[in-house]
Write a structure and sequence with these properties.
With 476 residues, the chain is of the alpha+beta class. The protein contains 14 helices and eight strands. It has two domains: 44-258, no CATH class; 270-474, Alpha-Beta Plaits (2-Layer Sandwich), CATH 3.30.70. The protein is elongated.
Length: 476
């Protein structure tokens, strides 16, 4: 995938952009330029279709299981035909019953095979399956054990066949109906099985009522009614389980929707902890005034570095350098608000409030600088990191937070003098050859949690846009 390059006022970024404008470079999705992709992925309608899509995949799996069972049944009757003793074959009506079962199973194999490919086509096209067809299919499938019982009773001329193994097939089909993820369909399957079995039992009960060698309970309608009720209860329980599974899928889809919406608003670099808090804060007001700490980070000497490198190499360098920094920001519950080509803006205390946002920002800055020193000192590190320095400025104050953008693409941003001053403080690092400068407001907040913070010197400086001097603390 190719990404367009945005304009920027930063000189080093402009140089990089000019190189990219000369040729289109394919960038991996894992790169930082992936933030240019459209991030709003799931709407309410898509969540619904995803649930239906899950139901279709579950239905496909259910049909596959039935196909396997039918094939097993065919192999079973073939083994009876060719490998069973003659006495068993004669008991089953010589070859007639075996062939009849094989014929019915072959029909169901073709039928279920057709359904499998039909559902697979619907999955590929992301189309819905008709409810009428789903109920018709449920009726056809649950009728299979009824047909087998009817044939078995006729061939062995005994009502005892009503409690033979085909009776258990009802339960097998009902259990598989859970995978339909539809409580009504499972109950419908159980109800149809109950009606078919009970009526079939009544029919044969009266057919054999004059036979004397049959146990008395087999000529009692209460016995068959009880068996039928067990089938119905199985259908109801399967429906309840399928409804629970569907609820879990809906819940998972909703969580996915919330996470994608947060990703859309706050970007890709939000820590799991912050994301979980945002998901659980349903009434979170994103447009409000908040006390936050704003961190500006900039890579020094990036212009000279980028001028002598290939654009792809520059992007790989930024990815390699920024990835651990982003993890550190996440660790201290901040969010990356924007990437600025050779730097970024991080916010601590919004959208989720922190008890001491200044301390979180300060600790993140210290750890970032320590990471950079380790990167430089490692023997395996390439020369590209040896001369890299960064500048960090942090200011604490009140900002206005809010979403900016369109309905389909928004960005969470902070506005106010606090942001502007944080940017100016970061730029002062160049003047004092420092790497971390704090405003007085930030320093005072940090002292509440860490009284022994050390600094090299205090300066009163005039920053752009301010008429009064600003007190700053040079830390490193």
């Amino acid at each position: 995938m190719c990404y367009p390059i945005l304009k920027s006022d930063n000189r080093s970024v402009r140089n990089l952009i000019s190189k990219f404008n000369k040729k289109t470079i394919p960038i991996k999705k894992t790169s930082l330029l992936a933030i240019l992709e459209e991030r709003y992925k799931i709407s309410e309608d898509i969540v619904i279709s995803e649930i239906e899509f899950s139901i279709l995949k579950s239905e496909k799996f259910r049909i596959l299981i039935i196909i396997i069972l039918v094939m097993f049944g065919i192999l079973h009757f073939l083994s009876l035909k060719f490998f069973s003793p003659k006495g068993i074959v004669e008991l089953l009506g010589k070859d007639r019953l075996i062939y009849l079962h094989l014929l019915i199973l072959t029909f169901y194999l073709i039928y279920e095979g057709f359904l499998y490919f039909r559902v697979n086509t619907l999955i590929q096209k992301r189309m819905r399956i008709s409810n009428v067809l789903r109920y018709l299919n449920a009726f056809i499938e649950i009728s299979a054990p009824t047909i087998f019982l009817y044939i078995l009773v006729i061939n062995i001329n005994s009502v005892e066949a009503l409690i033979f193994s085909p009776y258990l097939i009802y339960f097998l089909i009902i259990i598989l109906s859970i995978l339909r993820l539809d409580i009504a369909l499972s109950i419908f399957t159980g109800f149809i099985a109950f009606i078919q079995y009970f009526l079939l039992s009544l029919y044969f009960m009266f057919q054999f009522k004059n036979m004397t060698n049959i146990p008395i309970y087999l000529l009692s309608w209460e016995f068959y009614f009880t068996n039928g009720m067990i089938i119905l209860v199985a259908g109801i329980l399967s429906g309840v389980i399928s409804n629970l599974l569907k609820s879990y899928i809906k819940h998972s889809a909703k969580i996915l929707e919330d996470r994608n919406e947060i990703m859309n608003i706050f970007g890709q670099y939000v820590s799991p902890e912050v994301m979980d808090k945002l998901i659980h804060q349903k009434n979170l007001d994103l447009t409000e005034k908040k006390q936050v700490s704003v961190m500006f980070l900039d890579i020094r000497n990036f212009t000279s570095f980028s001028e002598s490198k290939d654009p792809v190499e520059v992007i790989d360098f930024l990815n390699e350098l920024f990835e651990p920094m982003v993890e550190i920001i996440n660790q201290y519950q901040g969010i990356i608000n924007k990437f600025l080509g050779d730097g970024f803006i991080a916010i601590f205390g919004a959208p989720v409030e922190l008890e001491n946002s200044a301390w979180h920002a300060y600790k993140a800055a210290i750890e970032i600088l320590q990471y950079l020193e380790r990167l430089k000192s490692e023997n395996t590190t390439s020369e590209k990191f040896k001369n890299i320095r960064i500048g960090i400025g942090i200011h604490t104050g009140v900002v206005v937070t809010g979403n900016v953008g369109s309905k389909t693409r928004k960005e969470y941003t902070v506005i106010g003098e606090t942001v502007n001053l944080a940017s100016r403080i970061e730029q002062i690092n160049k003047k004092f050859q420092s790497q971390l400068i704090l405003s007085k407001e930030t320093y005072d907040e940090i002292l509440k949690k860490e009284p022994n913070i050390s600094y090299q010197e205090i300066k009163k400086v005039i920053v752009k846009g301010k008429t009064q001097p600003v007190i700053i603390y040079k830390i490193i």
